[in-house]
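lol forgot to send this yesterday, sorry. struct tokens for the thing we talked abt
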């Protein structure tokens, strides 16, 4: 049986990455993920790897590009606005077909936002975030134990499909402490062998390898070939967890920390005789569309619970495909769900009320907005003075 230890989420993540064979880390400080680079700075050299505190997030992601091109298991971590700065580099990693691990320990936004844990980066992660047609595989842990064990899965998937993999974690998950265990043997990257595409010392008559983010001859063919891989991933790699989900009246859908609050609601609902289930997507891309659709078809309603202003709910609606009504229980910009609040929304659905449910159009009722300009100020492009 694996040994249990008490660890903070960010530290479990960093230790898990080292155990999974990470030997290059480049990052830059930002709350609430600061313990990740701090831990890497203390233990990466001991593992035989390299740690770099880069001068910026932009520099860090480009250092990861260089290390990944050599076939080294490489990683960077940041929090929401820092990951925004990395987006151009992530697109280059995707276009060069380079495997690596990118971690986003999310905080409230947009912009600088706050250091409170949030889930407002769902669109950024699952829709690419940068320019062009590409995806990254996105894993969403909901415990310190999963934070520690997902780096191994992330590297395995990234290398199998030659693409970046992201771990998307709530800020609170990175900061909380729990008992956890590692469920894989430490990986010795020296025993993994060499990639036939990697840049390294060219010897023994081997043809020289080059890694390009833009091949320059036929971009259409490159993008279409990559799309074939994406299609295979969508078919074979979706991961999810179900709790009392098959045949329930109200199906909750949530990922990360929100899913734990939903589980509390599921357990409370049993005491009231309500049939409430939980569907937790573990891969946010590829999203487990087919299974969610199958479960939703048997339910009276689906409720998306998320720490954002309605992002996950878009993929939920696509999966449900109009078979069942879909509602939203939203906690944006650092708001935190709890079991009783979620259960209030469930009761509203069953009783035809609106408590705990969010809809943008309903939210706008009775609100008026006026944008005025003081023409006397003489703003360029306006006439000066007058009424």
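and heres what i got for the seq, position by position
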């Amino acid at each position: 049986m694996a040994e249990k230890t008490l660890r903070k989420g960010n530290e479990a993540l960093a230790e898990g990455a080292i155990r999974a064979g990470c030997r290059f880390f480049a990052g830059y400080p930002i709350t609430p993920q600061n313990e990740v680079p701090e831990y890497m700075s203390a233990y990466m050299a001991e593992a035989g790897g390299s740690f770099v505190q880069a001068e910026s997030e932009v520099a860090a992601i480009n250092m990861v590009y260089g290390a990944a091109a050599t076939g080294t298991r490489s990683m960077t971590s940041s929090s929401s606005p820092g990951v925004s700065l990395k987006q151009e580099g992530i697109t280059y990693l995707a276009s060069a077909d380079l495997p690596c691990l990118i971690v986003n320990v999310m905080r409230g936004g947009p912009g600088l936002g706050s250091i409170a844990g949030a889930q407002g980066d769902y669109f950024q992660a699952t829709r690419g975030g940068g320019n062009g047609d590409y995806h990254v595989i996105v894993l969403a842990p909901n415990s310190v134990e999963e934070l520690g064990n997902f780096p191994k899965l992330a590297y395995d998937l990234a290398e199998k499909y030659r693409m970046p993999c992201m771990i998307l974690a709530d800020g609170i998950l990175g900061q909380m402490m729990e008992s956890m265990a590692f469920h894989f043997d430490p990986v010795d990257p020296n025993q993994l062998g060499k990639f036939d595409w990697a840049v390294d010392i060219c010897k023994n008559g081997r043809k020289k390898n080059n890694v390009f983010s833009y091949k320059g001859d036929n971009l259409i063919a490159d993008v279409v070939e990559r799309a074939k891989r994406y299609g295979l991933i969508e078919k074979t790699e979706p991961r999810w967890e179900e709790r009392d989900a098959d045949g329930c009246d109200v199906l909750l859908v949530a990922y990360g920390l929100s899913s734990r609050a939903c589980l509390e609601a599921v357990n409370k609902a049993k005491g009231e005789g309500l049939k409430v289930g939980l569907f937790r997507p573990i891969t946010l891309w590829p999203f487990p569309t087919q299974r969610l659709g199958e479960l939703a078809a048997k339910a009276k309603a689906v409720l998306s619970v998320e720490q954002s202003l309605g992002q996950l709910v878009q993929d939920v609606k696509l999966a449900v495909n109009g078979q069942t009504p879909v509602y939203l229980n939203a906690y944006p910009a650092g708001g935190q769900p709890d079991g009783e609040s979620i259960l209030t929304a469930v009761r509203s659905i069953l009783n035809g009320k609106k408590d705990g449910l969010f809809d943008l159009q309903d939210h706008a009722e009775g609100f008026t907005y006026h944008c005025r300009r003081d023409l006397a100020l003489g703003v360029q492009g306006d006439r000066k003075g007058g009424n």
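Residues 144-161 form the longest helix (18 residues). anyway ping me if u want another try
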